[in-house]
TrEMBL record, chain A:
Residues 35-141 form the Aldehyde oxidase/xanthine dehydrogenase a/b hammerhead domain. One of its GO terms (molecular function) is iron ion binding. This is Xanthine dehydrogenase subunit D. InterPro entries: Ald_Oxase/Xan_DH_a/b (IPR000674), Ald_Oxase/Xan_DH_a/b_sf (IPR036856), Ald_Oxase/xanthine_DH-like (IPR016208), AldOxase/xan_DH_MoCoBD1 (IPR008274), AldOxase/xan_DH_MoCoBD2 (IPR046867), AldOxase/xan_DH_Mopterin-bd_sf (IPR037165), Xanthine_dehydrogenase_dsu (IPR017609). It holds the Pfam family Ald_Xan_dh_C.
Automatic annotation (TrEMBL), chain B:
It comes from Embleya scabrispora. This is (2Fe-2S)-binding protein. Coiled coil: none annotated. SUPFAM superfamilies: 2Fe-2S ferredoxin-like, CO dehydrogenase ISP C-domain like. Gene3D superfamilies: 3.10.20.30, [2Fe-2S]-binding domain (1.10.150.120). The keyword Metal-binding applies.
Length: 788, 166
């Protein structure tokens, strides 16, 4: 940024500590963050910058008869008012399918769709200008998920002529799985018990704390520099270039501070809008969403309706599973196809089932677009299949954990996709561990005196002193894939430079990985210390000057960009030894046994062969490496067969809840977790992931839902969309298992998403245990418990 | 209008303030102190918590004109030069910082709590921080950080945790 002061986190940041992998050194960005010096995208400032604002549709579905921007343009302080007519290049973008207009063209398809954008010298001026834009809408009835599958009767969200890569009708994507004999009559006959359940998951929001923001700065070469909070710099750019009519080298992105992501920044939001305004005005333009706009500005978790049938023998062995899943994709495709692939392929959970028939479909509707959110299609399914396992256990008179253990998959198991699990899959062990953890004390219940109401349902509302409070315990376990699947060319790039600075060897790590809070930058420094034997590591800002790191999603960054950093460090080490061979005549058998330790080159006997500082001199070693995981295959669309996922990750939860059955209030007392992470690269960060993911699962269980009525969003604020506070969140003991995956760097296993899956069904199971209610929908609201 | 107040002990003037501007906007956009975060602008998330005359408030809910001649303290004022406040250091050490967007507000709120209660119970900590949303950590490491900060401050005072002064 050409502003007067460059924020410290947009310069190289020193990573403190001396620890390599397996330890928990401090975050390189931690001090900046606690001092208030860490510049998030919303904190950026540039001389002469303008503020951008968006006009959004108040309707879920309407034709646009006309847009009149003249009154907005006439407002003093307004520099630009743009509609789709002002876009220099392509008018569409999209993560997988370019079906989303940058600004609405003749029609709006969801409540909150961007129609026009404004740049002004004060954010309030921009907001007032937006209010002066006159749009004449012809409002049409919104198409919901129930209508979407009958387009002849209810209409098309996108005119059939507009269909690009996607399927037909209002179907975005579907995936079918045929495993064994499916649910044939013979298979059904073999099942001695069949349980059927219909389940629903509401629309969850990522609700990251730092709203969408960025600063676009026009450059002298006619290009744009964008400082942005995102999950994937390179795919943002890939979608932006055609719209801006610029080649990739003229669209340069730098990661500004990111205030959380959880999938909500995988799609672009204000990126193109800020750049269009900057291009048009020739001035830097900053856009910062407020919380309400943030609810409209990013995709959400797909609401799901799921019908399951589970058949089993009387002794509890699963015979077949039949699942029909419909996901509400909303108005535009986003990542719906991949979410459908996950829902189908992970749809029976971490269990061995000889026969399965699964149909998963995402539909276009006039609801808000849905796409990536932590757990990505596996969260909805886990609520469904775990509810079924409890239902089956009840039907069979078996302990719910015992039923799960009986059917748990393990290394060597065959999944419904035909894929053989070729790494540890300790599902039964995780259940055993979480069940064995000590239970919290059963205090405060059924007593009238001396209770701390803060520990009870209703809390300081003082609605109970323990009367009407019933405790319940429930379990859940889930399976999530790691990394990009279905044949996607998943790679990450890392550059590592080793040089002498101030008389000491220093390693610089440069990647395009979006640090969104997960702590990847800490792990990169640890990897480099382990591989290169140096203490001093510097982290360069993430930007598009280096190759893509892929997205910070799919629990993949420690595996993928961590793997790339490891590979690049190995290449640097190899180049250092090669320098010794060429310049100092080190024989090959010596080189073969060399290591870098404590700033020295040492041999097999730990004798110092050279000082790294001397060997490097003033000639740095600089290596850039692309890292790929082993290839996967696309699933066959009709049978679902294929080696579709590169790695699986598992977490089990036990929930203890207190329910005030008279008032329908729930207090989650404890959420215990056991998770296999392969290798805890940074144990403190691993716990942070498990705690955070678990808490988002708690939110889905009892609090979080975007309420959409006929396409209109009813609660776009933190007043009305509730996420767990510190009072809602219980102690969360965690048992971390480390069974190495032989295919992954250091044996590690992606950790971020699995805990988000199983927390929800565990809590619901605990509430069912306390109330005896069926509870087929999340989030559970008080009226679901009281029947009022 | 012009607003005159002190921020972190320094006399400060903000000019051309529109009457609808919040203290948060003035701090972030006019005074050059963007440490206080804007995550909801309606007092629900606590990310913009600052001291106003020694009491923690949501800066987004305070009109800029209300701070005329008053004292504001922000996250930028917690450290003493290069030395972090024990609360800041504990958040870093305990792993209570992930994305960090909620952190400035939590630090000010915790700082206030530990000024009032030297040895807060877990229930007191949860109640005191219940107005500060965090989406990353699940609050477990925040609890650890507050306990750690309280213990370190007690050590520094030479007081035993048993003698609660809170």
């Amino acid at each position: 940024m050409a502003g007067p002061t460059m924020p410290k986190n947009l310069l190289d940041v020193c990573a403190p500590g001396r620890d390599g992998i397996g330890a928990s050194p401090l975050r390189p960005d931690g001090i900046l963050k606690v001092r208030g010096d860490f510049a998030y995208a919303s904190d950026l400032w540039h001389e002469d910058m303008l503020w951008g604002t968006t006009l959004r549709s108040p309707h879920a579905r309407a034709r646009i008869r006309s847009v009149d921007v003249s009154a907005a343009l006439a407002l003093p302080g307004v520099y630009a008012v743009l509609t789709h007519e002002d876009i220099p290049g392509s008018k569409f973008y999209g993560l997988e399918i370019a079906d989303q207009p940058v600004l609405a063209i003749d029609e709006v398809r969801f409540h909150g769709e961007p129609v026009a954008i404004v740049a002004a010298d004060h954010p309030e001026t921009a907001r007032r200008a937006v209010d002066r834009i006159v749009v004449d809408y012809d409002v049409l009835p919104a198409i919901g998920p129930a209508q979407a599958l009958d387009p002849e009767r209810y209409g098309y969200v996108h005119a059939p002529a507009d269909y690009k890569a996607h399927a037909s009708g209002n179907v975005v994507h579907s995936q079918h799985i045929r495993h064994g004999d499916g649910d044939s009559a013979q298979v059904r006959a073999r099942a001695e018990v069949i349980v059927r359940g219909e389940y629903e998951v509401g629309m969850q929001d990522q609700a990251f704390l730092g709203p969408e923001s960025g600063l676009a700065v026009p450059a002298e070469d006619g290009g744009i520099d964008l400082y942005i909070a995102t999950q994937w710099l390179h795919v943002d750019r890939q979608q932006m270039c055609p719209v801006l009519g610029l080649p990739p080298e003229k669209v340069r992105l730098t990661l500004a501070g990111v205030g959380g992501a959880f999938g909500g920044r995988e799609d672009i939001s204000m990126q193109v809008h800020a750049c269009l305004l900057a291009q048009y005005t020739g001035k830097p333009v900053k856009i910062v969403y407020n919380r309400e706009e943030s609810f409209f500005g990013h995709v959400h978790r797909h609401p799901a309706t799921m019908v399951f049938e589970h058949g089993a023998t009387r002794d509890g062995r699963l015979v077949f599973v039949r699942a029909e899943i419909v996901l509400d994709g909303g108005a535009y495709a986003s990542s719906s196809p991949a979410v459908v692939g996950n829902a189908a392929s992970l749809g029976i959970g971490p269990y061995v089932v000889p026969n399965a028939l699964i149909d998963a479909t995402a539909v276009y509707t006039n609801n808000p677009p849905c796409g990536a959110m932590r757990g990505f299609g596996a969260v909805q399914m886990c609520f469904g299949y775990e509810s079924q396992m409890d239902r089956l256990a009840a039907e069979l008179g078996l302990d719910p954990v015992e039923l799960r253990r009986l059917n748990a998959m393990e290394q060597g198991s065959v999944l419904p996709t035909g894929q053989v699990v070729d790494a540890p899959a300790p599902v039964a062990e995780l259940l055993r561990r979480v069940e064995a953890m000590p239970l919290p004390a059963a205090e405060h219940r059924h007593t009238g005196d001396g209770v701390d109401v803060r520990e009870l349902p209703g809390g300081v509302s003082n609605s109970t002193h323990g009367e009407g409070v019933v405790r319940g315990i429930g379990y859940g376990v889930g399976i999530k894939n790691v990394g990009f699947s279905e044949g996607f060319d998943d790679y990450s790039t890392a550059r590592v430079r080793l040089e002498v600075v101030g008389g000491a060897p220093v390693a610089l790590v440069h990647t395009a990985m979006a640090e969104v809070g997960q702590g990847g930058v800490t792990v990169h420094a640890q990897i480099v210390r382990t591989e290169l034997g140096v203490d001093l590591v510097t982290i360069a800002p993430a930007d598009t000057r280096v190759g893509s790191a892929g997205s910070t999603s799919a629990s993949r960054q420690t595996y993928m960009t961590g793997g790339a950093v490891k590979s690049a460090a190995e290449a640097v080490r190899g180049a250092v030894f090669e320098r010794g061979r060429l310049r100092r005549g080190w024989p090959p058998d010596l080189v073969a046994g060399l290591r870098l330790v404590g700033g020295k080159v040492v041999d097999r006997a730990d004798a110092v062969v050279a000082d790294l500082v001397d060997l490097l001199g003033d000639e740095p070693v600089d290596e850039t490496v692309e890292f790929r995981h082993r290839p996967t295959q696309a699933f066959d669309r009709t049978t679902g067969q294929g080696f579709g996922h590169v790695q699986y990750t598992f977490c089990a939860h036990r929930a203890v809840v207190d329910v005030d059955v008279e008032l329908g209030l729930v207090k989650v007392v404890e959420l215990a977790a056991a998770q296999d992470v392969g290798k805890a690269m940074n144990p403190l960060a691993v716990l942070g992931q498990i705690h955070g993911g678990t808490t988002q699962g708690l939110g889905l269980a009892v609090m979080e839902e975007i309420v959409v009525t006929e396409g209109r969003v009813g609660n776009p604020s933190f007043t009305d969309y509730l996420i767990p506070t510190i009072l809602d969140t219980p102690p969360m003991p965690v048992d971390v298992l480390e069974l190495a995956d032989p295919h992954a760097p250091y044996g590690l296993r992606g950790a971020g998403e699995a805990p988000t899956l199983s927390a929800t069904p565990a809590i619901v199971a605990a509430i069912r245990a306390a109330t005896g209610l069926a509870l087929n929908r999340v989030p559970i609201r008080p009226e679901h418990l009281t029947g009022t | 209008m012009r607003v005159t107040f002190t921020v972190n002990g320094r006399p400060t003037e903000a000019d051309d303030v529109w009457e609808g501007e919040s203290l948060l906007y003035v701090l972030r956009e006019r005074v050059g102190l963007p440490g206080s975060k804007n995550a909801c602008e309606q007092g629900e998330c606590g990310s913009c918590t600052v001291y106003l005359d020694g009491a923690p408030v949501c800066a987004c809910l305070v009109a800029a004109g209300q701070v005329q001649d008053r004292a504001v303290g922000t996250v930028e004022g917690l450290a003493d030069g290069d030395t972090l406040d024990p609360v800041q250091q504990a958040f870093v050490d305990a792993g209570a910082v992930q994305c960090g967007f909620c952190t400035p507000g939590l630090l000010v709120q915790t700082h206030d709590l530990l000024n009032r209660a030297h040895h807060p119970s877990d229930a007191e900590i949860r109640e005191a921080l219940s107005g500060n949303l965090c989406r990353c950590t699940g609050y477990e490491k925040i609890m650890d950080a507050v306990r750690l900060a309280a213990a370190r401050k007690a050590d520094a005072r030479g007081t035993a945790p048993a003698g609660s002064e809170g």
